[in-house]
Amino acid sequence: MNKKVLVVEDDKNLGKVLTDYLSSKKFIVELAEDGEKGLEFFIYNTYDIVILDIMMPKKDGFSLAKDIRKINKDIPLIFLTAKSQRDSIVKAFNIGADDYLTKPFSIEELLLRMDAVLKRSVKVENKDLDEEFILGSYTFLHNQNILKTNSGNKFKLTTKENELLKLFCENINSKVDRSLALMKIWGDDSYYNARSMDVYIAKLRKYLSKDKKIELKTIHGFGFKLLILD
What we know:
It is built from 8 helices and 12 strands. With 230 residues, it is an alpha/beta fold. The protein starts with a strand and ends with a strand.
């Protein structure tokens, strides 16, 4: 399966070069031209790797990387930037960067670094035995972030989708408190995180919609309940 890349770069010419080159190497590429748009893309889509600049309008790369790490602690992040100062490099890795490449750069070197980071990511995903849940006509493989149907269709879940679905699977046909879910998965129950969770809940409902005996129900004033009907 082709890997999906989010490139966040405000230089339109460089953005086009990266998009064209990575597309020629069989990556699926989406380009965001500022940090705010990059975060919006990340919230509403699923990616295998993110490449981001630091100096961008609206939201800088450091702030964007922090927001991405709140949503997904595992996705590979590569900074691609003109900032070569040691403190910038240290800051990037402290935030959770997997690699850091300074401009001007070799696009072939970028590809090699991407391949290396993606290979490390796959090894981490496969290091444990699968934790499996049966949900009607679906099988949920928690350690692989995969939800699959009996007919063979597969959905690759984001980290937050994966952890939410696990929480619901551990409480099938029981209420799950909204604030508890936020604190357990996001670390706080702020308004921003609550809105993000609503987006992931909607995506889980879409994934599970093929089986009419499954309902991810909102309990107004409390939280949610994953119902599996006999």
